[in-house]
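Hi,

I'm pasting everything inline rather than attaching a file, because the server keeps stripping attachments. The sequence lines come first, and each chain or strand is labelled.
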Amino acid sequence: MSSNTAAAHDHTHDHTHDDHHGAPKGLLRWVFTTNHKDIGTLYLVFSLLMFLIGGGMALIIRAELFQPGLQLVNPEFFNQMTTMHALVMIFGAVMPAFVGLANWMIPMMIGAPDMALPRMNNWSFWILPFAFTMLIGTLFMPSGGPAGGWTLYPPLSLQTGNSFAFVIFAIHMLGISSIMGAINVIATILNMRAPGMTLLRMPLFVWSWLITAFLLIAVMPVLAGAVTMLLTDRFFDTTFFSAAGGGDPVMFQHIFWFFGHPEVYIMILPAFGIISEIIPTFARKPLFGYTAMVYATASIAFLSFIVWAHHMFTVGMPLGAELFFMYATMVIAVPTGVKVFNWVSTMWRGAMTFETPMLFALAFVILFTIGGFSGLMLAIVPADFQYHDTYFVVAHFHYVLVTGAVFAIIAAAYYWLPKWTGNMYNERLGKIHFWWSVISVNVLFFPQHYLGLAGMPRRIPDYAVQFADYNMISSIGGFAFGLAQLLFAFIVWQCARGGVKATAQVWEGAKGLEWTLPSPAPYHTFDEPPKIDDSVVAHGDVAH
Amino acid sequence: MTHADTPNPNRYFVPHNAPWPIVGSIGMTALLAGAAMSMNGTAAGKISMLAGFAIIVVMLFGWFGQVVKESVNGYYNSQVDTSFRMGMIWFIFSEVMFFAAFFGALFYARVFMVPWLGGEGHGVMTNALLWQGFDPVWPTNGPAAVGGGFDTVPAFGVPLVNTLILLTSGLTVTMAHWALKVGQRRSLVLWLAATVALGFFFVYLQAEEYIHAYQELGLTLGSGIYGSTFFMLTGFHGMHVTLGAIMLTVIMFRAAKGHFTADNHFGFEGVAWYWHFVDVVWLGLFVFVYVV
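And the predicted assembly:
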């Protein structure tokens, strides 16, 4: 295996210095790497790039909607933007960001030398650039990219031009990547914990990822099946989704959302985990109700499998189904409420400070809860008949995904950047980024609630004039928010290049294995399993 | 082997510099982009597909070859073994969920779609206005009789034989496992050979059945919802049997070379699990696609 000579080293060395060999040099380091930190960095950088590309698409949408009428783009391209914005943000920005965080943090949080299956870990990442080249490349095909919405509902999606098969195969590749990533996370958590790191001593970020990985393995193959049926309906004469042949387009929606609803939680459970790490650190108190948090996460995951049809209340389902899915959906508010209650209780009478990660975490708790409440409104069948496919839905899921998932990812980046880079980020700029983001994001999305309640449909390039004012406000917020994220990219870049040296502890109140390591964390960590006792367990109330 | 790591049973083996994943990505992209081009009628698509497939085969040989080498040279301790086992179990679970999507489509079609098209429940007006006179009995190719008239494959002919073949192969692979556990390599290889033979015989009978269906029964992939579910379920299953049989063949050769010992043979077990998985899926198929 000549390819291994470059990084060859002798494991029988004295291991008192774990970084006895550093990172290999050159570009190929990143292509061939099996190191969880390298792969985590690849995922995070890729995710940031996709976030900016997907954000650019969002700004095209908001620019067109700045005023009524058609100004900048034609409707076909507008629809391609809404479709691609969603696919890029979901599969390119949010999911890879969480996998990147999992790669970086899980081995360091459970005392493992690396991920369980390091080569497969490399492949999980390196499928993504190819899949997204294929997916985004469809925009440049003569027929244009997919324009029927990211949910790919037939029969509309079957009318996509030559890009259709490329989109389907890109989705297959993304699924393969996600499944392999998830298998790696599960095997790592179940098999690689240091002795003494029992399941109920694990940091909540690890717990949330264990459950997320299970969801991924359970539902990504179902998406693969659904899009495969689309492909054969389009090219090989099957009639899964055509009533003439005894099929039903609504069946696609059922299969899609059996994937799609757990997918929503795939994008929020790791965020819950991140917030559960950050709040105790800056409240300088143990997390309130650790085990309740674990059970709440597991309950949400279980419920996610039996609520899918709340995405399709207006499609014409039997009354019994409407009622079942309505009540099952509302039940989710209970474990979610437990989580919000526990975060607030953790802060109660804590010695709080408000560094940037904490600010984003606090904004998460408040704004995600707003998104949760609008979700409850949407769960009510008779009300949903009014809200369905309006901007109210857009407002709802952007509150849970932008001020929820994305804010949590940003919080995580600020929280762990000093551990990754060895440098403190610029706190002043971080605070500016926070206030700029949190104000603009509300200017961006809050008016969309009103637009939806007033009846403005989603996924349209033009609208009636009575919606003009709120759309203009929303677009202004959108551009401000987009600009703020360029500042974020700058802060991350600046922090990676240098700055005030971070200590191993970084944050006064931080607890957990990753903070026992120097900053930056050495290339190889925990080659020998660390000793686990209460002093290094992340959540101090766990063992008692 | 210029790998300078020395095997150390007390440490978890973390490989360095993996060249094969990126090769796999290139192969996968060439294969799938080629398939997409072919579907759009671009002639170059076939070349890209072939190249992609070849690259993937090279990648599999290279990647697995490296893992096999590391395994027989003792790099993997029991913890690594457990990681592989977990990886395989969860991979099989993902496969189960892939088939679940198609079984779900079958059940949804039979329990809801077809009766609704026939006017049951809230489908009254659909039936009255669009598909009057449609008789919602299974098997069906829908109210427009898509693909024309067809007959189904009777369950208690070739499918029953295939069921017996797969069940027997489950038995032979277990016999192979027992032989492995008591260290009888000759017997192990023979039982594996029997399993491989049964596997490929199953695939052969499936292929014959497909030819029969297309040429004589008028049953094709385009025969409405029945044809769609029938061929997608049995087709994906057949592909998995083929893959499983190829994997068993590799394992047979590895067994003949003495790669497995009584207490260290994850490669064998992983493939055996996979084989049992395709076996169980077939039982579901036999019951729900052919019999019921």
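Chain A touches chain B through 85 residues (CB under 8 Å).

If the labels don't parse on your end, tell me and I'll reformat.
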